[in-house]
Write a structure and sequence with these properties.
Elements (H helix, E strand, L loop, with lengths): L8 E7 L4 E5 L4 H8 L17 E5 L1 E3 L4 E3 L9 H8 L9 E3 L9 E4 L26 E7 L11 H13 L5 E2 L3 H11 L3 E7 L3 E7 L6 E7 L3 E8 L5 E8 L9 H10 L3 H23 L7 E8 L1 H8 L19 E4 L12 E4 L9 H10 L8 E5 L4 E6 L4 E6 L20 E7 L6 E5 L11 H8 L3 E2 L1 H13 L20 E4 L2 E8 L3 E4 L1 H25 L6 E5 H4 L4 H7 L10 E5 L1 H11 L2 H10 L3 E2 L8 H7 L11 H6 L12 H14 L1
Helix pairs in contact: 8-14, 8-15, 10-13, 11-16
């Protein structure tokens, strides 16, 4: 398929990969996807039988792609698709199309759902092991209610109240009007023996026939890239099941500001995204309930964390005010709301608790991280960093807490990288480069062997090497710097091409080849720049907080989030993502925001705690800080243009240009040695 443009060609952009091209009108969508190397599953060879190649057209005006994706720019539902939808046990959801049977008729944006991809996303947001004091928000009380008779005309509700007071000393309980609709049925179904669920505020949530040992709750982390849900036993705190999905809002914009821009330019765009995220939460709820062999109506409590824009969209609040200064939140307080008001398909009386936000771009996910890591209870100066599309930073101890956000962008997620992809089987996640030969070796997700080990080739044939994910990008660029392939300013050293086949000219710059197989994977100069911009934004935010705190060093660093969970601390420091610190005191906090959501779910007293703590957090707004740009420019270098890294130098052989010494004489001698080598 030729990608050259003619007057009859249509422009097609596939999301979330961002791959694009021009194709003649009438080209099947699957054929276009395959020509561009878009990851679309197909087993039947385009016959419309397997149904694995389902896609969704994103309609509307997309200035970012210079496309007006109209519904008429793809063909109408074909007979093949109608026949597939009518087959038993087949499913073609509303809005979905079979890409093999859908033709391109004009410019369009096509979204490939996660379940239509061969290399499906690994959502690394499992529940971390964590000691939580269980103080359930909902308690169960089994009672035997006296049956009605002709001598006692009292109603069923009154006799249930009397039983709860008689057996459990519970008084002044509140029963919502909805409880009356099913009360008589449940009492008789249980032969007047029922289990009553009562929350810590004295509200009756449910009346279940017979004896019920436990109920469930959901803790949900609504990330901008992924959404994770943990189903927990409210009595024991045990995680019964976990599941994660890609955030469907990615098709409206990879980063947060792109989604706000979409809302600004599309009437009801916020409603589209609100509907999408709520549908995903319902899917996750069904998934974890099925895993745990539980019913959806057993879920009576839900807690949420998320950044402010995800927070607003979940609640159905238009987020446009967060798109520009002063980045005003609709509310920074915690929110209590009924699940049915969020269109969640749970028990009719299920309630949701959304943790409080801190400020414009420091949200409930940061509150969850604080609740999980508890820096306010430590004397040590702690730095907490949740690395994602938008990084959240907390610095402090039991005397003072500061917080900021920094727009790192999607580079650490694999976006904006030439061979980048999300964490899926086949993605390079570990990299090492020989200091003498400059030859790389790597590990891919799904295989425990290094690429130079015996048996790797056989394993690789099963999985394939498909791209490089966030942790792989970090290690590749850090290793390139340590091997001398990258200068401290981030330039690929083209003079080494004479002695290394892995360094090749690419126009006016050079690139470094990691893998040259069926999939060509290399690190380009633009890739290096994208990572530099991301890491400089993060480090500049950290330095602003350290300046405000009046400190030059920190005692401990915790890397949070799905991405932070898989970064090796040494490489994060070599790259200059984080400041110098004893490497023994740098560790992963796992999915700290999700853990905070679980704490709030299982211990209702922790809700008061976090609501009080976040009001004491001092917010530093990086967007209006005059020194942010100065810190940003200095942080573009590896690991930094001026900051010292003595702890890192003890563990890693840094290039001599970056071993900052207090002694001028030592630095001067090092400079003389470099001149002699020339």
């Amino acid at each position: 398929m030729s990608l050259s443009t003619t007057v009859t060609d249509a422009r097609v952009v596939f999301t979330p990969s961002g791959k694009r091209g021009y194709f003649p009108v009438g080209t099947p969508v699957l054929q276009a996807a395959q020509a561009l190397g878009v990851d679309v599953d197909s087993v039947c060879g385009g016959r419309g039988i397997c149904g694995r190649c389902q896609v969704v057209q994103s309609t509307g005006n997309f200035p970012k792609h210079s496309i007006n994706s109209k519904s008429e720019n793809i063909s109408q539902l074909s007979e093949v698709e109608k026949a597939y939808a009518d087959r038993p046990k087949k499913n073609l959801k509303d809005g979905r199309r079979l890409s093999c049977a859908t033709q391109i008729l004009g410019d369009c944006v096509i979204d490939v759902p996660p379940d239509s991809q061969v290399h499906q996303q690994i959502v690394r947001k499992e529940a971390d092991a964590f000691d939580i004091e269980i103080i359930p928000p909902v308690q169960l009380h089994y009672v035997e209610v006296w049956k009605p008779n002709m001598h006692d005309p009292s109603g069923d509700l009154r006799r249930l109240r009397e039983a709860l007071e008689r057996e459990w000393q519970l008084t002044d309980l509140r029963f919502g009007p909805g409880m009356l609709l099913s009360l008589q049925r449940e009492l008789r179904k249980g032969d007047w023996k029922v289990t009553v669920a009562v929350d810590y505020l004295g509200q009756v949530i449910a009346v279940n026939p017979g004896f019920k040992e436990s109920l469930c709750g959901l803790a949900i982390d609504v990330g901008s890239t992924t959404v994770a849900a943990h189903l927990c036993n409210l009595r024991t705190g045990k995680v019964l099941a976990s599941a994660g999905m890609m955030n469907p809002q990615i098709r409206f914009g990879e980063d947060l500001m792109s989604r706000v821009s979409y809302v600004m330019m599309h009437p009801d765009g916020d409603k589209e995204m609100t509907k999408a995220i709520r549908e995903t939460i319902n899917e996750l709820a069904e998934n974890v309930a099925k895993q745990a062999n539980r019913e959806l109506d057993e879920i009576v409590e839900v807690t949420f964390v998320g950044n402010p824009i995800m927070h607003h969209l979940l609640l159905g609040i238009n987020p446009v005010e967060l798109g520009g200064a002063p980045f005003a939140l609709a509310t920074d307080e915690s929110v209590r709301i009924r699940a049915r008001d969020l269109k969640l398909l749970l028990h009719t009386n299920t309630r949701c608790y959304v943790l409080p936000c801190i400020a414009g771009h420091v949200g409930a996910d940061t509150a969850g991280m604080i609740l999980s890591e508890a820096p306010h209870k430590r004397e040590a100066m702690s730095l907490l960093v949740d690395i994602g599309t938008n990084a959240e930073i907390v610095l402090g101890n039991n005397e003072r807490l500061l917080a900021a956000s920094s727009p790192t962008g999607p580079a650490f997620e694999g976006a904006q990288i030439s061979s980048g992809q999300r964490a899926a089987p086949g993605a390079i996640e570990r990299v090492r480069i020989d200091r003498q030969t400059l030859v790389p070796k790597f590990k891919i997700i799904g295989c425990d062997l290094w690429s130079d080990e015996s048996g790797f080739s056989a394993e690789n044939k099963k999985i394939g090497t498909t791209g490089i994910c966030g942790s792989g990008i970090i290690e590749a660029i850090a290793e390139m710097y340590l091997a001398g392939i990258l200068t401290p300013d981030g330039v690929i050293n083209g003079t080494l091409a004479e002695n290394s086949q892995n360094i090749v000219a690419e126009g006016r710059t050079f690139s470094y080849i990691l893998h040259d197989g069926s999939q060509h994977i290399n690190i380009t100069q633009n890739d290096v720049r994208a990572v530099q911009l991301a890491k400089a934004a993060l480090y500049a935010g950290i330095r602003l907080l350290m300046e405000r705190m009046g400190i030059e060093t920190v005692d401990r660093i915790r890397l949070a989030g799905a991405f932070g969970n898989h970064i090796e601390p040494k490489y994060a420091m070599v790259l200059g993502l984080i400041p110098d610190c004893d490497l023994k005191q740098v560790s992963s906090a796992g999915n700290a925001a999700g853990t905070g959501a679980r704490i709030a779910l299982l211990n209702h007293e922790s809700r008061n705690e976090i609501e009080e703590v976040v009001r004491q957090v001092e917010k530093v707004e990086t967007a209006v800080e005059s020194k942010f740009q100065q810190h940003f420019v200095s942080a573009m270098a590896f690991p930094h243009k001026t900051d010292n890294f003595p702890n890192l130098a003890k563990e890693v052989d840094l290039p001599v240009e970056n071993v900052h010494q207090d002694s001028y004489e030592i630095a001067s001698n090092a400079a003389k040695r470099r001149r002699r080598k020339k």
